[in-house]
């Protein structure tokens, strides 16, 4: 699709008139990657505005409740993860301490064996 075909599609779309005008203005000059991103943003804003107007007060309340529940669940999951990580770190430290003690005992055994062989 070329720029003119895109302009025709935008003109025929149900995008708000002010956004259509902004898009037309952006596409009047050189079309760069930045311009394309700005056009995408304008189209996305229009979609979101249309979607927001479709939601009833009850829908918004349900969404807010679900978001609050999700937030609470995430907080709980983070707390549980933190507790689990603290436990794992404790176990690792304990295991490392045991390895050090074992290595000391092995070294001492080698020293004692060397002394006995002299």
What composes the largest sheet?
A: none
What portion of residues belong to β-strands? under 5%
- H-E order: HHHH
Helix/strand/pairing category:
mainly alpha
Average per-residue pLDDT, rounded, comes to 90
User: In total, how many beta strands?
Assistant: 0
Helix content: over 70%
Task: Tally the helices.
Answer: 4
How many structural domains does the protein architecture include?
Answer: 2
In angstroms, what is the radius of gyration? 33 Å
Give the uncertain stretches in residue-range form: none
- What gap, in angstroms, lies between the N and C termini? 91 Å
List keywords for this structure.
elongated; about 0% strand; 2 domains; about 120 residues; mainly alpha
Structure, described:
This protein has 2 domains: 54 residues; 63 residues. 89% of the residues lie in helices and 0% in strands. The protein has 4 helices and no strands.
Can you describe this structure in just a few lines?
The protein has 118 residues and is mainly α. It has helices at 3-12, 17-28, 33-54, 57-117.
Topology record:
Layout: H1 3-12, H2 17-28, H3 33-54, H4 57-117
């Amino acid at each position: 699709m070329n720029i003119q075909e895109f302009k025709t599609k935008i003109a025929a779309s149900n995008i708000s008139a002010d956004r259509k005008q902004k898009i037309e203005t952006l596409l009047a000059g050189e079309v760069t990657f930045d311009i394309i991103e700005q056009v995408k943003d304008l189209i996305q804003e229009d979609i979101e505005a249309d979607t927001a107007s479709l939601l009833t007060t009850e829908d918004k309340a349900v969404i807010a409740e679900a978001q609050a529940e999700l937030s609470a669940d995430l907080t709980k999951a983070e707390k549980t993860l933190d507790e689990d990580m603290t436990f794992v770190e404790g176990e690792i430290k304990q295991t490392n301490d045991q390895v050090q003690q074992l290595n000391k005992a092995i070294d001492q055994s080698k020293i004692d064996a060397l002394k006995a062989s002299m």
